[in-house]
Amino acid sequence: MAQFEEGTTLDRFLLETTREHPEASGQFVTLLKQVALAGKLVSARVNRAGLAGMFGATGSMNIQGEYVQKMDLYANETFKGALEHAGVVCMMVSEEEEAPIFVPDRFRHGNYIFCMDPLDGSSNIDTNATIGTIFCVFRRCSGGDGRGDPSDALRSGREIVAAGYIVYGAGTVLVLSTGEGVHGFTLDPTVGEFFLSHSDIRLGEKTRSYSCNEAYSAQWDPRLRAWLDKVKEPSLGWSARYIGSLVGDFHRNLVKGGVFLYPPTAKTPNGKLRLLYEAFPLAYLVENAGGAASDGTMAILDKVPGSIHERTALFIGDRDNVEEIVRALRG
User: Are 117 and 68 a contacting pair, CB within 8 Å?
Assistant: First the structure.
C-alpha cells in the first residue's frame, strides 16, 4: 500500500489507493466521498445545534425503543440523501429505520450495501459531549440485485469491505479502513476538507485502561465482576476512562489503547449494542489496527446476524485485554 504523509487530503488518499486496484469501477471511491460529504454536513449542524433548534428529542421512539433526538433524524436523512442518489449503493440499513432502505429504481445499479448508526450517542448533544456516526460497507450479493430481501445485509463480518466512524467532538475526525490499515482524517472547517492526521493507527498488545458503565456491574456475569475487581488492585496500575458514548469511548481507546466493555445484563441478556452497524464496523477497525473484538464466546466478525437490528455483547480493544476477559468468562 502507498505511504501517505500527514496532511494528505482524503480525496487524494482515496484516489491514490484506488490506483493500486485497476479493476475498480470508481463506485467505491464515490461512496466514501459521499460519506465524507454527509459527515461535513452533520458536523456543521452539530456545531450549531443550539442555534439551529436541534437540541432535544422529537417525542417519538425508534424501532430500538429509544427516544429519537432531533439530530438523529437530521443525520439519518443526510446520509440517506448523500448515498441513495449517487448510484453506488443498492440498499442501506440504519438504526433509525425498521426495515432496509432500497434506493430508487434508476439508481439500483449500485454495487454496495451501506449499514449505519447515523448518530451514536445523540442524547449527549445537549451537554456538548462526544457523538458520532458509525458505518460499514458490504458488496452487493452476487447473483442478486441487492433489492427486496433484507437478508442481503445479513452477512458475516468477514465480508465487510470498508468500515469507519466520524466522531464529532473538539474536532471532527473520520477514521477509516478498507482492509489495509486504519487511518484518521481531521476536518479543517476553514477549507471544508478532511486531512490525514492519524496515519496507520496501531494498537499495542495491552494498555491498562478500561471503559464501561460500572453501574450495571451487579447484573454482570460474576466471573466478569471478579476480573474487574482484580484489575482495580492499585499495584497493577489500571485506570478507568468512560465517556458514555460508544464512538467516543472507542475512539479514545483506539488512539490511546485500552479495552471497552459492554457485557450482557439481566435486562439485556443478548447484549445491547447492534451487531450489524455498531459492533461489526468497530470490530473491523480494531482488527485492522492489531486489536480484537469478542462477544465473550467468539470473535465479533465471525458472527452472522439473524436480523438487521440484532444485538450483541461487546469486548473490544487491545488484543491481550480482550483475550484476558474471554478467558475470565470461560472460567
Answer: no
321 vs 191: CA distance, rounded Å: 40
- In angstroms, the CA 16 to CA 4 distance is 9
Is the domain spanning 209-329 CATH 3.40.190.80? The answer is: yes
Topology (CATH) of 10-198? Fructose-1,6-Bisphosphatase; Chain A, domain 1 (3.30.540)
Please name which of 80, 109, 101, 107 lies closest in space to residue 152, comparing C-alpha atoms. 101
Of residues 148 and 36, more confidently modeled: 36
Within the chain, which residue ranges are assigned CATH 3.30.540.10? 10-198
- The boundaries of every CATH 3.40.190.80 domain in the chain are 209-329
Can you tell me the mean pLDDT for 38-50? 85
32 has a pLDDT exceeding 80 = yes
Which pLDDT does position 1 carry in this prediction?
Answer: 55
Q: What is the pLDDT of residue 26?
A: 87
Q: Rounded to two decimals, what is the model's pTM? A: 0.92
pLDDT in tens, 122-157: 777 777 788 999 999 999 875 555 455 778 899 999
Contact 156, 299 (CB under 8 A): no
Percent of the chain with pLDDT over 70: 89
Taking only the tens place, the pLDDT of each residue in 78-116 is 999 999 989 999 999 999 999 999 988 777 788 999 999
